[in-house]
Amino acid sequence: MDDLDQKILAAMASDSSTSVSRLARRFKVARSTVQARLEKLETNGTIAGYTIKLGDVALARRIKATVLVYCEARASAGVVGKLKNIPDVEMVATSTGRVDLIAQIACGTTEDIDQTLNDITAVTGVQDIESLIHLSVKFDRSI
Known about the structure:
Layout: H1 3-14, H2 20-27, H3 31-43, H4 56-60, E1 63-71, H5 76-83, E2 89-94, E3 101-107, H6 110-121, E4 126-133
Antiparallel strand pairs: 1-3, 1-4, 2-3
Helix pairs in contact: 2-3
C-alpha cells in the first residue's frame, strides 16, 4: 500500500460517500486511477465494505456500555457465538488479563440495557459480568 492508497483510505474513512471524481480532483490523479485503487483495495480485503457513521443526534438516542465478561474455563468460543445472537451487542473482543471477553452494547433506554445485561448473564458459560456505562464521548477515532 503506497501513499496514494493511504490517502484514499483516510478520505473514505472520513466520509465514505465521497465520489471517485472528488477523490481524483483532491489527489490530482485520473478518475480511473482512483477507481482502480479502490477496486484493488476491495479485492485484497483492505476495504471490506462501505458504511455510515452515526452523527451526534442519532448517537444521543443510544446508551452505550462496555461489558466485561468472565467465562467458565474453555467456554469463550461458545459464549461468543451466543452473544452474536443478542441484537444490542455491537462488538465482542477477546482480552488478556482477568477478563475473558469485552462486549460493547448499545440500547435505547436504561431498561433495555438492564435486559441486555440479563441476556448476557443468562448465556451458558458466562460466569460473571461487569458493566461500565458510557456517559459521554470526548473523542472517537474509530473508523
